[in-house]
Amino acid sequence: MDLPRLELLIILALPLVAGIVVGLMGPQRGRAIRWIAAATTAATLLLTLHVAAQFMRFNTPRAAQAEKRVDTPTFRPLFVPGAPGVTLHEGNIREENPHGTSWNLLPLGPGNIQFFIGIDGINLWLVVLTAVLGVPVVLVSWNHISVRVNEFYAWLLILQTAMLGIFLSFDIILFYVFFELSLVPLFFLIGIWGGPERRYAAGKFFIYTLTGSLITLLGVLGVVFACYTKNNNELTFSIPRLVEIVHARLRIPNEEERQFWANVQLWVFLALTAGFAVKVPLVPFHTWLPLAHVEAPTAGSIDLAGVLLKVGAYGFLRLCVPLAPDVSLNLGLPLVSTLAVVGIIYGALCAYAQDDIKRLVAYSSVSHLGLCMLGMFALNSAGISGSIMQMINHGLSTSGLFLIVGMLYERYHTRKISDYGGMAARLPLFGVFMTFICMSSIGLPGLNGFIGELLSLMGVFEQQWQRDQFPIYAVIGAFGMFLGAWYLMTMLRRVFFGPLKEPPVPEHEQHDPITDLTGRELTALVPLAILCVVVGLYPQPMLDTMRPDVKVIEDIAGNARKRVVLAAQRGPAVVENDRGEGAAP
Amino acid sequence: MNGSDVAVSLGGVFSLIVPEILLLVVACVLFVGSTIRANRNLWGGVAVFGLFLAAYALWLTAAKVPTIEARAENGENISTMLFTSSILQTRLSLLVSAIALVGGLVLVLFSWNEVPDQHAGEYHACLLLSVAGLMVTGAANDLITLFLALELISIPTYVLLYLLRHDRAAQEASAKYFLLSIFSSGLLLFGFSYMYGMTGTTNIAALLDALARDPNRLPALALVALVMVVAGMGFKITAVPFHFYAPDVYQGSAPAGAAFLAFMPKAAGFVALLLVLGYTWIGGPVRGLALGPQVPILFLILAALTMCVGNVLAILQDNVKRMLAYSSVAHAGYMLIGLAVAPDLSYSTGKPITGGAEAVLFYLVAYSAMTLGAFAVITLLSTPERPVETVDDLAGLSSSHPGVAILMALFLFSLIGIPLTAGFAGKFLIFFGALAIPADQVQLSEHALWFWRLALIGAVNAAIGAWYYLRIVSAMYLRTPIKPIEQHPSWPGVTAMLICAAVTLGLGVYPWPMVKAARAAILSERSTDARTEPLAKTRND
What we know:
Order of helices and strands of chain A: HHHEEEEHHHHHHHHHHHHHHHHHH
Shape of chain A: globular
Strand content of chain A: under 5%
Distance between the termini of chain B: 5 Å
Number of helices of chain B: 23
Radius of gyration of chain A: 24 Å
Largest interface: A-B, 40 and 38 residues
Strand order of the largest sheet of chain A: 1-2
Low-confidence stretches of chain B: 526-541
Structural class of chain B: mainly alpha
Oligomer: heterodimer
Mean pLDDT of chain A: 86
Low-confidence stretches of chain A: 573-585
Distance between the termini of chain A: 29 Å
């Protein structure tokens, strides 16, 4: 096995193994546990960066391949352990299967659930983001967590594996397994080490997400069986292959077939949306989020906001749009876009109304993720790239905000905006970093937030402009960005500027004198800040890497658009037949 | 059939039930011995020895006597054996025997310290008898044998429930169980008698063969038989509306007794349903439809009712045993989905994909492991002075007993159906089967839609289930103890718990071997030729 494949497996397994080891060490050896956790996350980060560097070497050939591609658009992950997959046909004929691996987990009739992980342009940066955030998460909990230390780091590391697994999976069941597995560690992280309402928050988070994801499971199985019945009893769980089959079947100009897939797509879209909309969260399903974010310990908030919210958006991008393209266009676009703009405005207004800084940041996530979804459902290149960039940037900035809020809370044991005032004079480094991260979150040009927001809004604008509509979504989205500046600047002004107002230092416990950021805290914050600048100034490598895969989704959506337009023009019975082949290749 | 045939078939039968006979012998030793000495360690040890002896005998038998499927695959003519023998060695019977022995071992281990010294012998003897009963159930090929095997489970149960505890609640529980169990046996026999009336034979293979000849023109009596059989078994598997004894009985009896009830009758009931309704019969298009095409509809309704009632009522419970009783009702509902689905899976495709009946078997193992595990934890932590009754009694368990708490969390997450546990693999297979009903054929589409709805009900129920299991997890991990538990776990209890945990985790992480075994037990070809002429011959003899 060549190096990147091995590294991929280590990235996935290392945190899990370390988590189990740490869990068994007992709560007394806190120091050793912290160092093991830090070393593990650092090693994961280094390996991930190495994988990313190797992946970027393939940028040019992948771009060339994407340009001249004639076959059905689908994802083509690299570095798949156990690849190439082999399909055994009757009579012992072995055929190489490009969309799978030879590592079978569970054979079910003619198909196999496979251990199919890999890297492509869409998940690469999310994996990197997860690995990057792993380090500050450990560092920020260093002194903050003093009870049941072994359990805390064990759950944290297991959560790391689950999150990486979600992004790396290319088998639809494996994806689901990691997706649900991420609930358990976070339940404990929120429930044990959280704030006063932690039990309620943990329970609500768990039940909400589980309910959604169970319905998602049905949707996932629905696609699998639709492909099974329609495509010569081929049972596959590989996401690229499913995308390919769905796309090929959608081209068949047969009224019965069209009816069948219209039905399937509708239900699949609804089922997948049930799970992912809770996770993102889109507005009516967001009520678990402020609670879970506020009650979670800082580390939990960062993993939740930085990574797990992206799981919802990633699910839409990886599964929902490619597997139900027509419905995503017909129903998803207006539905999700509407919910997204409602979320942008509603989240921003709620954020402004908060007196608790953490709650403010939590609501700002609702707003920012709204923009991310708005961009994605523009279903064009700019929008989708912008959406992915927005996921990464929101991960960086919001984690930074949660980090600073957590550090502030560690010192004063209050998060109320009204308790603070003029803190920049008292804690100048805090002031600098807070201002910086707020700017990045607002989307100041030159910092990371800008590029994602700009691309998303461009995508939305283009999408509506081309159809001769007033770009209402883009206008509201842009207004949302303005609101973002408004509530963040207000918070910044009230907490860090103006006359000094320092909350009383809690006396009931042993406390060092209040100091500015320590070396450990700077180690957590500085890399995030540097990344904000780097991504803001030079996003081109990231955009280049994701372009071929964004193009896949764009092609899928483009073909869906053609179908919809043609169906509308020529009446329902005539459907486009662009290549006219029967079954999937 | 002349005398020598009877002798031959009897001789053949005896070689097949050596493990069961060994268990009976050990049970007799226990019954007699317990009148001489009262010592739980001694009799517990003897019971474990008996189980290992039976396991060894089972292994020898399995190695020596080929299963009926293996014979068929070797091209032997199995029809005589199939249509005359009252006990068959099949892959299903081997699997059920293995489940029975492991389950029996777990039950012996974790009631080790719970049973009073003076009753230890009788208690373990009753346990071994019902293990033998479950083993015979899996191998039965005759309605009479099947009924006797089920009674061999039920009758010791009445004694067993009473031996563990003597208070009023336990008396009420065992009396209630006794009366209702007798009633259900009556229903079952009634159904069996109709089956005999329709076909003129009590041999299950012959009976299924006769019913399969003309599956579309079954007499109306078949429907009566179906309803009666399902009602009789419904009691054992706690399907709604035959479940209402369960919460009271579980709550009233000691945790070990409740665990016994959650495992033994339920396993026997499902295995018996698989046999009687022809789920293991490949003779024709009758898989599961031996008593009429109404089977899927009947089980569909039962499954939906059972899941919903079990889960919703479990939410309302504060008593852990009562909660687990409703949870076991709910899980019976999930398994019933598999029974409802199975007939259609084989209708539609030549090569049915996993789901349906083999999913039921898989789920049965998974369910047994996680439920027995949860009861093992409760047993382990209960003392007469401080029984674990309500959820609050488990509060703060993670700080006083971190090891026990993490295992209990494993069992509960498995009951919820979180990945990497047996519960997830089981639910996945069940739902997979329900969604696998093909929808593309016009005549099936409406039908398939119903199973999709059933799967949706199942998924919603799984989410409801999470609510009350999570309450226990929250109590253990997120709360401080109200009354600290000071019980020090004993090694037999810990061993029982570890066995359950190993099965729960093992089936979750790598389910393939068990899926394969379950599939072999259900889908094996029992030679399609077997059902042609020989039946007429045996009848004429």
